[in-house]
Amino acid sequence: MSILELDSKQAQAVKHIRNFVNQNGRMPSVRELMQAMEYKSPRSASVMLDKLVQNGVLNRCPQTRKLNFNDGVLAQSTNTSTVEVPLIGTTSCSGPIFAEESIEAYYRISSQLAPSGNQYFFLKIQGDSMDLAGIAPGDMVLIRQQNTAKSGDLVLALIDDEATIKKYVPEDGLVILKPCSTNPEHNPIILTHDFQIQGVVVRSFSNL
Questions:
Q1: Which range marks the domain in which residue 155 is found?
Q2: Is the pTM here over 0.70, yes or no?
Q3: Are 53 and 153 in a shared domain?
Q4: Could you list the active site residues?
């Protein structure tokens, strides 16, 4: 749905949510949206979010209930420039993670998500090892290319020529890559040998 097709209250909510995401790097809570919209109760904010999901402006992850903007809506603004970001495969790819011959397609997103000064790329997710982090099978994950990370970052790591996305946790001189999953079959990876951080997850898209 185009922002132009929303009623005035919905368009106002989208503007507040977009500004909040740009400033804080995350979606606002129900109470934060309530305050921004000057609602009298959290219920009103919750109803507004439900309407934006129904209208296709927001996506809700079935597993976590986490909300994200539909990418098409993110790019809709006369004041928002867009950039093309390459899709370079899935998390099973090996070798140099950013190689021209690996590019499968390009997707256009808001430059606010991928500002100049860094390289970005998309990966398509296989498996459910990060579904509790809002990253579901089939999602497209936007990665900012870098070789360092902070504790708690969701990183793209290259281990023995295989790429994986996990939560980065340095602990007691070791590095642990932790899954965030409803599936108990996924176990933490305790690294005892060299590995490479290929990038950090910016966000996940269920619709591109």
A1: 82-205
A2: no
A3: no
A4: 129, 166
